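Example record

One chain of 430 residues, shown exactly as stored in the release files.
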Amino acid sequence: MDTIASIFSFITTPVSWVIVQFHSVYGAIFGPDTGWAWGLSIVSLVILIRICLIPLFVKQIKATRAMQTLQPEMKKIQERYKNDKQRQSEEMMKLYKETGTNPLSSCLPILAQSPFFFALYHVLNSIASNDTIGVINDRLLESAQKAHIFGAPLAAKFTDADAKVQALGSTITDVRVVTAIMIVLMSFSQFYTQRQLMTKNVDTTVKTPFMQQQKMLMYVFPIMFAVFGINFPVGVLVYWLTTNVWTMGQQMYVIHNNPTPGSKAQASYLERLHKRVTHHGKTRGRGEKAIVKAIVAKGRDRNDFERKFINGLSKAGLAAQADGTVVKSEASTVVETEDGTPATGGAAPKRQQPKRQSKSQRQSGAAQGGGSKAADESAPKTSLSKSDEPQDAKPGPKPAGGKSASGGTRSKAQSGQRKGPQRPKSPSKK
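Predicted C-alpha cells for this chain:
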C-alpha cells in the first residue's frame, strides 16, 4: 500500500488536501467528527472534479457528433456489404481513417478522468484501512473513522465482521442496511443513465458495433457495481453514488438541449423548438440558432425529424436562414418530400379544372353564337364584298329527271360536301 501511495502521491496528495479543506468548512457547521462534515466533503470533491472535467465532457460530445455525421455513409456500407462482414469491417475502418474519426474517441474523456477518481478511491480506502495518506494525519484519520452516515461508519463495509463494526461504534445491521441501499441506488443510477442514452439519444436507423458495445455495458456495469459494491467502504459508495447522479443529471441536460441527430430526443426537441419559433416568430439564443443552422446546412441529407421541422416552418409562413435565424416568408409554401426534393403545397394555389357543361347549356351557347353570326350577316356589306348570288342570275330550265338545279345543290349541301347558299349552275348545253 505504501508503494502505491508513493507512486500516485502526485494525485493523492492534492485530492486529500481538497478533502481536508472542505472538511474544515463543513466541520465548523456540523462538527468535525460528524458524518455530515466528512460526507459532504466527499460529495463536494466529486462535484469539483466533475466541474473541472466539463471541457473534456464537451469534447466527448463533439466526438460523438462527429461519429453521427458518418452515419449515412456507414449505413450505405452496411447495405452494400451486408452479406460480407469482413469487407464491411474493412470499409468501416477505411472510412474512419479517411475522415480522421475514431469510434473510441468518445471514451477518451472517461479515461482522462480516471486518475482523479482512482486517487479519491485510494484516499477513502486508506481511511478505511486506518492508514494516513497525503495531508490526512492521525488526528484527521481518527475523526474520519468516527464519522457515521445514517448510522454506518464512513470506513465500514458490507462484508465486515460484527466485532469490527462494533469497534467503529455501530451495529452490523445498520451497516448492511445502509450499504445495501446505497449499492442499489448506485446500480440503478448507472443503469438508468446508460438506458437513457441508448433509448433516447441514439440514432437507431444505423446499427454499429459501438452501439452494440454500449448496449452490453448497460447491463454489465450495474452488475459490476452490485458485485464489487459489497467490498467498498461507505465513503467510497458515497463517491460512486455522487458521480453517478452527476453523470445522470449532466446527460439529461445534454439530451434535452443538444440531442443526437436522428434520435427520439431530437424529435421531441424539434417539436418544442417549432412551437417556440412559431410563437415568437424567431429563434432565441445561440443554442437554437446553432441547431437551425446545422439543419439548414444539411440540405438533402436531413433526416425525417429535421425535414418535418423545416416543412412545419414553411406551413407557418416562416423560412429558416443559413445563419440560423428565422424570417417571415411571403412566397408560396415549399414542402420537402421524404427524399428531400421540394414539392409545392400548403398555401400554393391549386389549378382549377373546367366544369363540364350540360347539353342544354351547350345548345343555349350555340344559339347565342348563331344569333351573333346572324347579326354579323345582317350588317351592311361594302362594295368590295362578293354577293352570294349574282344579280343577273336567272332560273334555267329544269334538267332531266324533273329536279331543279337548286334542288341538286341542296342535296349536295346536305351530303356535307359544301354548306351555305350556292351559286346556281347554268344548264349544260347538249
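Notes: The CA atoms of residues 161 and 244 lie 28 Å apart.
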